[in-house]
Amino acid sequence: MIRGLFVLYGLLFYSICTGQNKSFPSSDFRPPFDGEIQIIGTFCELRPNHFHGGLDIRTGGTIGRPVLSIGDGYISRINISNAGYGKALYITHPNGYTSVYAHLNEFPDFIEWYIEKSQYLQRKYEVELYPEVDLIQVKKGQLVAYSGNTGASQGPHLHFEIRETETEAPVNPLLCGIKMVDRMAPSFLNLYIYRKDSLEKLHNGHYPAVALPMYTTQIIKKGKKKKKIHVPVSHHTMAFGTYALAANLRDYATSLGDNNGVNYISIYKDGELFYDCRIERFMFSQIRMHNNYVDYRLFKTKGLKIHKLFKDDGSTLDFWEHSPTNGWFVLDDTLWHQFKIVIKDVYGNASEKTIFISGSEHGRKVSDYIMHYKNVKHCKASSNNKLELSKELNVLLNSGTLYHDYLLNYERNSNGTYTIGHINVPLDKKMTLVYKLNGFQIPLGNKYVVKCNDGRVYGGELKGLNEYHVQVRDFGTFQLILDTIRPTIKPVSINKNGYFSFIVSDNISGIKDFDFFINGTWVLLKYDSKSGLIYGKIPNPLITGKHIIELRVRDSRLNERIYRRYIDIP
Ligand SMILES: [Zn+2]
Question: pTM here?
Answer without folding.
Answer: 0.88
